[in-house]
Design a protein that fits this description.
Layout (H helix, E strand, L loop, with lengths): L1 E8 L11 E5 L6 E6 L7 H14 L5 H12 L9 H9 L2 E2 L1 E7 L4 E7 L3 E6 L2 E6 L14 E2 L13 H5 E5 L6 E6 L1 H12 L5 H4 L5 H13 L8 E7 L12
Antiparallel strand pairs: 1-12, 2-3, 3-5, 4-9, 5-6, 6-10, 7-8, 7-11, 11-12
Helix pairs in contact: 1-2
Length: about 250
């Protein structure tokens, strides 16, 4: 697995520090990446998103111990006794974030995708769109997504009997000629799926983006034309074939 492209465009380009999307990459020989989108209205979602992505890349086997440990790690980074009443109330309500994790399973010649929330992965083979997960249609972005919370009582979905079938997906690389996976946070994901439903193959644009200036130009143009919501925007492009002569591995 090679990370060919991985960049972000904040919702306010002049204030990149308030970008709440988080991207965690590791070398291709480890074969894992994770993307998270922190919920703006929560206490410190960026810190929570960073913690989730780092933990997934270190250990993608999610279970109750994994999540409890992540929550404990987050909570020990704050001292509620030193907070104002309003800060403590927000802290108690919790921080929220999506988690999209990709792992290449070399022994099975496949890709495992894990997703809670509305960050999506799209599977391409050359110029063909094969699948997307967890959403397949733009309308699904209108629903309230399930998110990992630092308030353990709000993670009921994590213990549901169908958790593994709802939140995991496997894509086989068998007989694929030029497999590519695009990872996208919600604004660009919704834009992508809406265009696909209208017969507009945006993946042909996204697979040709070479650098951050290309990506910024696309995002700002689509925001200006009101085709893409103004939100923090992350795109990762993963390839599973040989390197082209004119293509360098990222970074």
């Amino acid at each position: 697995m090679r990370v060919v492209f991985a960049e972000q465009v904040p919702k306010e380009p002049s204030f990149p520090d308030v970008n709440e999307d988080v991207l965690e990459l590791r070398r291709s020989d480890i074969g894992r990446i994770a993307v998270s989108d922190g919920a703006s209205e929560s206490f410190d979602s960026k810190r929570w998103a960073k913690l989730l992505t780092a933990r997934f890349v270190q250990n993608p086997k999610l279970d109750k111990t994994w999540l409890d440990s992540a929550i404990s790690d987050y909570q020990t980074q704050f001292n509620p006794a030193q907070m104002s009443w309003s800060q403590q109330a927000a802290f108690d309500r919790g921080s929220f974030a999506t988690l999209l994790g990709i792992e290449q399973l070399v022994e099975h010649n496949s890709i495992s995708i894990f997703s809670v929330g509305d960050s999506i992965a799209v599977f391409l083979d050359g110029n063909d769109l094969i699948d997307s997960f967890p959403y397949r249609r733009a309308e699904e972005f209108q629903q309230r997504p399930e998110l990992f919370s630092t308030n353990a009582a709000l993670n009921d979905f994590f213990s549901s009997p169908d958790f593994s079938t709802r939140y995991y997906k496997t894509w086989s690389l068998m007989n694929r000629k030029a497999p590519v996976v695009l990872c996208m946070t919600d604004a660009i994901g919704e834009w992508f799926l809406r265009a696909a439903q209208e017969g507009n193959h945006k993946w042909r644009v996204l697979t040709k983006i070479r650098d951050i200036s290309d990506f910024e130009s696309l995002v700002l143009q689509e925001r200006q034309s009101e085709n893409m919501r103004i939100d923090d925007t992350t795109l990762v492009r993963l390839a599973f074939d040989a390197i082209d002569n004119d293509e360098l591995p990222y970074p």
